[in-house]
Design brief:
Oligomer: single chain
CATH class of the largest domain: Alpha Beta
Shape: globular
Structural class: alpha+beta
Helix content: 25-40%
CATH superfamily of the largest domain: Gcn5-related N-acetyltransferase (GNAT)
Number of domains: 2
CATH architecture of the largest domain: 3-Layer(aba) Sandwich
Length: 361
């Protein structure tokens, strides 16, 4: 999709920003672009650089002095995937932002040249939407994945109408969470320790590594305009905690954790109802429920909350003889590591998780 108000006249030049260069004008381009996300911003890239060893390689397309395209990339090197480019690590969205087909073509050609010229295994472009295609199909012509879907919907202008967005069956348990079980909901920026404990416990149950608490603290340092932490409590005890991202008119609950009893209490339904209310009150017009693997439990939970899936437009530039990587929980090769992580004591999972996260950007 193109950015409104840009013309296609003039040639496009793509440059890679030096590692030390300030991304002058790039964040403004992201803010203006209808497909821009928090993950495209320098703030996200800064945090990836601070916490992980991946090399930042930002591509900027210019027509004259004007930015007409942006592709934030990180070069990653892990024993699981080998040398690769990711847009963007630890994010569900990324990929190129372009004002028109010519800018998209120029970015694509540069990525292809990088993968081929540097003997990389692949470039993974985590697009939510593909840029405007030129005649040759652009990024749409690249091999893609149908593994993930995202869930978004418009929000009402009145927060009182948010409950009506939830289908009747789920709505009943949502009401019971408040009226029968006495759950409460609040913004709680000081509840990072409780959030992190629940997040790690949930990841351990799934057999997945988890981020260090410092990662979340750094994200919360972006401030309420960008990041918020909310909790659901039962008699004073946190049973669900969610960190949400705000960008433009969109509210995106991104990280969460919950106690096992949360399902019985309807606490997750209650949490996301209240998050929609908070989003409306914050002036957001769209609720992005985030990415889930197709036909998994989270995928069906989001459908049961009244959201319809849309396949994500992930695209890949493959190196010589390369194939689309399969580094995800659905790959049976990771069954043993999942069982090992699940069986480890909590303190050990918390300690080794951040190191393992370097392998799965």
């Amino acid at each position: 999709m193109a950015e409104a108000g840009e013309s296609g006249a003039g040639s496009v030049v793509v440059v890679e920003l030096p590692a030390s260069a300030a991304p002058h004008g790039c964040d403004e381009f992201v803010e203006r672009h209808r497909d821009g996300t928090l993950f495209h911003t320098s703030a996200w890239g800064d945090r990836v650089e601070r916490h992980f060893p991946h090399r930042r390689r930002t591509l900027v397309a210019r027509r004259g002095e004007r930015i007409v395209g942006l592709l934030p990339l990180f070069e990653t090197r892990s024993p699981l995937a080998g040398p690769a480019l990711i847009s963007v690590p630890y994010a569900v969205y990324g990929g190129p932002l372009a004002s028109d087909g010519a800018a998209a073509t120029a970015l694509r050609e540069r990525v292809v040249a990088m993968v081929q010229g540097e003997a990389l295994r692949f470039a993974e472009l985590r697009c939510a939407e593909l840029p405007a295609p030129p005649e040759d199909g652009g990024f749409a012509a690249l091999p893609g994945s149908t593994l993930y879907a995202t869930f978004t919907r418009a929000l009402p202008s009145d927060p009182e109408e948010c409950l009506g967005l939830i289908p009747r069956k789920s709505r009943a348990s949502t009401r019971q969470a408040r009226d029968k079980h006495g759950l409460s909901f609040a913004e709680a920026p000081g509840a990072l320790a409780e959030f992190h404990r629940l997040f790690v416990l949930n990841k351990q149950k799934l057999g997945s590594p988890a981020f260090a608490a410092d990662w979340f603290a750094d994200l919360l340092a972006l401030g309420r305009r960008r990041v918020r932490l909310h909790v659901v409590r039962k008699e004073g005890r946190v049973v669900v905690a969610v960190i949400s991202f705000l960008h433009g008119d969109t509210w995106n609950p991104y990280y969460s954790g919950s106690l096992p009893e949360a399902d019985r209490l309807g606490a997750s339904n209650f949490a996301y109802w209240q998050l929609m209310v908070a989003a409306v009150e914050a002036g957001c017009r769209r609720f992005d429920f985030g990415r889930s693997r197709v036909e998994t439990g989270p995928y069906h939970f989001k459908r049961n909350m009244g959201f319809e899936p849309k396949l994500l437009a992930y695209r890949y530039v493959l190196g010589a003889g390369g194939a689309i990587p399969s580094i995800n929980p659905g790959n049976e090769k990771f069954d043993l590591p999942r069982r090992v992580i699940s069986a480890l004591p909590y303190p050990l999972v918390r300690a080794v998780g951040p190191r393992l996260m370097r392998l799965v950007p």
